[in-house]
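Q&A log
Question type: sequence-to-structure
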Amino acid sequence: MRKVLFISIVLISSLACWCSRGNDVNLSTPEKTLRSYYQGFKRSDFEYQKKTLLSSIEVIGKERFDAVSPVLQTYEIVKIREAKDRKNDTFQLPEDDIQVIVKEIHKNSQESINSFVLRKLEGEWLIVGFDTVNKAEFPPDIKVIEDQAKKMLEQKGKK
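Response status: OK
Response body:
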């Protein structure tokens, strides 16, 4: 009886350890949340990826997963901005949110630019929204626009 009990305990412990290996979603920082998000694509596992999403966006997350999963090759974080750094932007984020701009490179060598909004909820960073924009339509920083406007005004004043 002791031998059966010992074997049962060993098997249950091994199974618990094996099951927890696939649950390595890390939501401790915005970067790690995005790493886990993109790991879901690599694994072809939406159940894994949806752990990075706020539950209210899971449906659109699944639509994106189905479209992007077959073509995604890699990703690169281009820029991280806190809401306080976006005061001059038209689209205002809640104060503690983070915007992360990500470049995706697809297997057909095409690229897309994505804007993710992450929010810390109960100690974990979750993706609460995202938007994909064409690289040509990617809006420049407000500083670039201001500099261009100043140059145009200076040139107009010289005429």
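Response note: The chain has one domain: 25-141.
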